[in-house]
């Protein structure tokens, strides 16, 4: 090729490289601030749980770990917390709906940093980790047991470990083998026949089981990923190196995440969640009964005898601010569900509260289309995203996994 | 063969077009020049009261519950002691309300009231509205905050 011909192609080649293969322009200060706010290094220390005075006791956490993996804590002897919360799968189960004794109506949530959530479950129907742990234990589709049976179980199997933490176990000799206000008909009748003192004694042991499991779960935390190493480099003004360097596509995805696509509106902070509840127009899963999301969750957490203001909470009422000042009514609660963390999200399809959406690509498509909600009003507005923008967002989300 | 200046002109021309295209691709929308009023003390909408707000702990952190002290006075500076105050607000740009239901939990005297349970769940422009009911009349004051 002559020099003249070469020079003819040069301008076109330059223009093309500028448009396609170029390095993206650096972050603005606002973008840098947004990226830093998502970094795990921005996570403050885990706050105390005033409702659980055993939350940070190692012996309670050790007992909780034992109970978490113990299948005997169920009606059929086959279901432990770890049946759905699998330790090597981010403490979730990869299924659209959790399966204990039978199939539930919700996607199993991962557990990393779950102790930081002010409200638990997709609809926030419990207000502490220990109160949350009690729900599945008595749910007929999950562990399917009763609080009286669990109290007997602890007395028969763990008395020596229980007493040094929680004090002596109560006399359960006159307590029926199985009884609960939430059980089957005979178990409800058995519960109603118990004295108030017996009921309180059983409730206290039951709450202590939850408090031990919660103490263990407080140790399950997020680990830094490529994104965090990238964010730390950006924050300290050095060029990200090795696996901390994002590809141009991942970088473009991050920029969309904090900018045009506005994912950060709800998926904010180092855990990528605002801990709040939103109707995002996710359609109900086929075959499940009516599900009002947060609207039902609010009523349930207020009525829960194990909530922060209840008899079994260790918190002074003034410490129960999340419960006292929660939004208790309003149209925005209808079919609103908790914003899940996006850390590790690429490794745990399917998505949404009943596993309705199978892939991340389909999730991005849902938010771009922003369909109307079947009930209530979706907060999401439609957004035009090109194929490459969608791919970039997914590429960025993958940097939140190791 | 001498250097052909036409190529240099062409290179500069195409580079300029590319630069413009990049600016369009990566630029952020321009920020409004005249922003909202961020004063923490102002007359209420009808001028019935002068309302001042102040966070009880600073800095105000995203996602954490915190409390504010609201001071209500008449325009001539007399504290209003028997006010009923309700709190609302939200993010006007996003069309949603506050993530919590803040309430007045204490009357501290000298027209000062403690509002607990305020939370801002994301960065951006928030509105806090205080509806005040007292013998002087019903009025409200709306404050803007940038988090």
From TrEMBL, chain A:
Heme c 2 binds at residues 263, 266-267. SUPFAM superfamilies: Cytochrome c. Keywords: Heme, Iron, Metal-binding, Oxidoreductase, Periplasm, Signal. GO terms for cellular component: periplasmic space. GO terms for molecular function: cytochrome-c peroxidase activity; electron transfer activity; heme binding; metal ion binding. It holds the Pfam family CCP_MauG. Its cofactor is heme. PROSITE patterns: CYTC, PROKAR_LIPOPROTEIN. It is found in: Periplasm. It comes from the Bacteria. Residues 59-186, 248-401 form the Cytochrome c domain. Binds 2 heme groups per subunit. InterPro entries: Cyt_c-like_dom (IPR009056), Cyt_c-like_dom_sf (IPR036909), Cytochrome_c_Peroxidase/MauG (IPR051395), Di-haem_cyt_c_peroxidsae (IPR004852), MauG/Cytc_peroxidase (IPR026259). Heme c 1 binds at residues 81, 84-85. Binds 2 heme groups. Residues 1-20 form the signal peptide. This is Methylamine utilization protein. It comes from Pseudaminobacter soli.
From TrEMBL, chain B:
InterPro entries: YtkA-like_dom. Pfam families: YtkA. Residues 48-129 form the YtkA-like domain. This is Auxin-binding protein.
């Amino acid at each position: 090729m002559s020099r003249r011909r070469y020079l003819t192609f040069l301008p076109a080649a330059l223009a093309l490289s500028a448009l396609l293969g170029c390095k993206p322009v650096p972050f603005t200060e606002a973008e840098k601030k947004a990226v830093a706010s998502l970094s795990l290094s921005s996570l403050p220390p885990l706050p105390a749980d005033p409702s659980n005075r055993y939350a940070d006791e190692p012996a309670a956490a050790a007992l909780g770990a034992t109970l978490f993996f113990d299948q005997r804590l169920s009606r059929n002897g086959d279901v432990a917390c770890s049946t759905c919360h699998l330790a090597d799968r981010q403490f979730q189960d990869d299924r659209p709906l959790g399966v204990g004794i039978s199939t539930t109506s919700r996607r199993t949530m991962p557990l990393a940093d779950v102790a930081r959530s002010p409200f638990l479950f997709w609809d926030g129907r419990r207000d502490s980790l220990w109160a949350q742990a009690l729900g599945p234990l008595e749910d007929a589709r999950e562990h399917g047991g009763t609080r009286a049976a669990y109290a007997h179980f602890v007395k028969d199997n763990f008395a020596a470990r229980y007493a040094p933490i929680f004090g002596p176990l109560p006399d359960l000799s006159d307590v029926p083998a199985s009884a609960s206000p939430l059980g089957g008909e005979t178990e409800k009748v058995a519960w109603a026949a118990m004295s108030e003192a017996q009921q309180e004694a059983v409730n206290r042991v039951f709450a202590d089981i939850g408090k031990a499991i919660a103490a263990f779960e407080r140790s399950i935390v997020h680990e830094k990923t490529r994104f965090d190493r990238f964010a730390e480099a950006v924050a300290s003004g050095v060029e990200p190196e090795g696996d901390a360097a994002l590809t141009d596509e991942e970088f473009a995805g991050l920029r969309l995440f904090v900018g045009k696509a506005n994912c950060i509106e709800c998926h904010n902070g180092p855990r990528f969640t605002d801990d709040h509840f939103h109707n995002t127009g996710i359609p109900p899963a086929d075959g499940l009964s009516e599900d009002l999301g947060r609207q039902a969750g609010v009523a349930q957490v207020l009525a829960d005898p194990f909530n922060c203001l209840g008899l079994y909470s260790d918190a002074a009422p003034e410490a129960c601010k999340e419960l006292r000042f929660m939004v208790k009514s309003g149209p925005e609660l209808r079919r609103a569900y908790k914003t899940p963390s996006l850390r590790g999200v690429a490794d745990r399809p399917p998505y949404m509260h009943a596993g309705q959406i199978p892939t991340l690509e389909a999730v991005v498509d849902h938010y771009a289309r922003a369909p109307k909600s079947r009930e209530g009003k979706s907060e999401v507005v439609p957004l035009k995203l090109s194929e490459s923008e969608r791919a970039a967002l997914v590429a960025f989300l993958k940097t939140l996994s190791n | 063969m001498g250097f052909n200046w036409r190529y240099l002109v062409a290179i500069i021309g195409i580079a300029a077009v590319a630069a413009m295209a990049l600016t369009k691709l990566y630029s952020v929308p321009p920020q409004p020049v005249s922003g909202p009023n961020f004063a923490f003390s102002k007359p209420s909408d009808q001028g019935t009261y002068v309302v001042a707000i102040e966070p009880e702990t600073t800095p105000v952190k995203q996602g954490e519950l915190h409390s504010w002290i609201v001071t209500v006075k008449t325009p001539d500076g007399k504290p209003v002691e028997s006010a009923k105050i309700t709190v609302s607000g939200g993010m006007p740009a996003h069309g949603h309300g506050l993530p919590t239901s803040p309430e007045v939990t204490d009357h501290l005297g000298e027209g000062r009231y403690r509002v607990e349970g305020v939370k801002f769940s994301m960065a951006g422009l928030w509105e806090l509205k205080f509806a005040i009911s007292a013998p002087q009349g019903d009025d409200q004051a709306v404050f803007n905050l940038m988090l």
